[in-house]
């Protein structure tokens, strides 16, 4: 049973997002990528292996998660990948010091509804600084009552659902992993809404 340090596990959403990154591998070399809520960092590490310039982050108040990021980097021969503490909803010196980014990654960050607005506040801040950037995120559908639609409107963000079959992630056994199994996982790309609201 998971403890409060969710970032010490590989979750099904991470496997699906890693599959999307693998499908996009031709466009990743030279891209500047930030993974938020990285935990064991599977998506970020795949992006780095595919040639992206990656920064991994997790909550600054979660030292075990940050250590998990660092261990994953070392285990995958990526000791140069920076790991920083970023807390959702908080403007910190680390957040302000981030270099420009092209892609924000987040797998299963929409886990606890109390965090949804803080996550989108941080994403909005990053997209405002990097208007061309996108937030690539996977999430597990855990309740029909949980939605971010109203928050997307509030923060002037738009989302596009990416069908899992479009990147061969609609299988029970993905990349020889039993994850994601029978979980209901969705993928979306979030970006700034256009001035006309779309």
UniProtKB/TrEMBL annotation:
Any one Gene Ontology BP term: methylation
Superkingdom of the organism of origin: Eukaryota
One of the record's GO cellular component terms: nucleus
Family matches, as Gene3D superfamilies: Vaccinia Virus protein VP39 (3.40.50.150)
Record's keyword terms, sorted: Methyltransferase, S-adenosyl-L-methionine, Transferase
Entry keyword S-adenosyl-L-methionine: yes
Molecular function terms from GO: methyltransferase activity
Keyword field contains Transferase: yes
Family: Belongs to the methyltransferase superfamily. METTL23 family.
The protein's name: MET23 protein
Species this chain originates from: Chionis minor
